[in-house]
Amino acid sequence: MADIKVKESKKGTVKTINKAVVGTEKMKDRLVQAKDKTKETYQEETSDSGTEYAINKISKTASNLPNNIYRINKYGKRNFDKTVQNIQNVNQKMKTIKKKNHAKKVVKQMKNATKTTKKGIKTAERTVKTTKQVAKTTAKATKRAIQMAKATAKATVKAIKVGIKATIAAIKAIIVATKALIAFLVAGGWVVVLIIIVVCLIAMLVSSIFGIFFSSEDTGSTITINGQQQVVTMNQVIADLNTEFMNKITQIQKDNPYDEYDINSHRAEWKDVLAIYTVKLSNGNNEADVITLNDEKVNLLKEIFWEMNEISFTKDEESHEEIRIGLTSTDRVTVTKVKLHITITGKTANEMADKYNFTQAQREQLLELTDNKYANMWSSVIYGSSVGSNDIVAVAASQIGNVGGQPFWSWYGFDSRVEWCACFVSWCANECGYIEAGIIPKFAGCQSEGVEWFRTCGLWKEKGFTPKPGDIIFFDWADKETGVRNGQADHVGIVEKTENGRVYTIEGNSSDSCCRRDYDINSLDILGYGTPMYQ
Fold this sequence. Notes:
Blueprint: H1 19-42, H2 50-62, H3 69-96, H4 101-126, H5 131-156, H6 168-174, H7 178-186, H8 191-206, E1 222-225, E2 228-231, H9 234-255, E3 260-266, H10 270-282, H11 295-308, E4 309-325, E5 330-346, H12 349-355, H13 360-369, H14 375-382, H15 390-397, H16 408-412, H17 421-431, H18 446-456, E6 460-462, E7 472-475, E8 491-499, E9 502-507, E10 515-520, E11 526-530
Helix pairs in contact: 1-2, 1-5, 2-8, 3-4, 3-7, 4-5, 4-8, 5-8, 10-11, 10-13, 15-17
């Protein structure tokens, strides 16, 4: 049989197709197109609503997609199931507080969107060989999904009157599985799913009772102050009420001259006050605008605060004889000292629930909001950033080198030398006008007068806190014989600065002198800090 002749191929004209490379390039093209479509649809110079804010944040992050597409998608897929489970957990939590039909529709749309995206992912994997068609389909699907997310979010947050400037950091604090969502954020092939999830979660949270956790953000809320409308946030209202509270204590001290005083405080916690306010405002409905403020809401909060905190006082006199020896005679004299006792009586959240006749739905909301798992979130609402004071630090520094404590203890009113560390702090505060302004108390007793005052006013921080210049540091020394600390303040000073994990202080009566000291920020000797509201 004759040989079959075959036309020779020219060397180098036939190339072997690397399917892995081609597949990778096609997937990369589709992701780039999806990213571009997302940017074209949502990139705006400014954003006034919570929805637009969230979308813009995510779109900017999407622009930083890594080049290694295979690794990104593999990592994203691995976290997909975790995120779906997180969505279900959020949905379940919302159900327990009896969502209304509108909120249920949002959750249903979230589930449908997730299922649609899962199908889209499988389709994308099967269609690697059809580059042009897949690219077009992906772009269209992206656009449709984003439009659906935007419409859903806008429908949910239509009750919010102003733009919600919620940050990504705040969102992370609310969503339990932060790591899974961050993984989604960097996985470019999942950007559509992420937009739907985050936008809908923001919409549900800020338009529910959980919006209280965003109330210290600038939402553009205004109230009437001195006849004018001024912008206000929740932590500013809290600061004003704390100042009013401190002023009442200061006024009692001014109106009732004393030699010694103490404070017995059982003040209601701010988180309980805010939880009662939120539940009373919502009237048991989960969908409630608790993120914004107006005159009526602020007045309600003030009413609740003063119903939960009552200030009272009593005075008593103690007399005793003292022997005074003169140059020519010895006399016995009766010395009378006046003691002022200030008492703060606070009501619990449950007592207020009974007082206001809360319904079962309201009690369930209250139980949820007062759960300890929200402790960090309450802190972000309640406490404004301490600005510190370099003025009191400068005054304290000017006294370095003083030995014996004059004029500090004599200025306070003592006839002879006493343990004068607290007198020194009070003297420095007085030089700055802080005692008259009610920012720092005049105190000679570290525990009964100093620590208790700051705790009563909600200005106390436990050790481990990073203090600012001008914060008041209290110490609990170990017993020299047993080595045991009793949890009571034995000494006090003024924080000068905090650097590299060390707290630098200026203290009076440290070896009977005024000098600088420094401590590890986690030192067992540190009991805690008073954090005056300098601004």
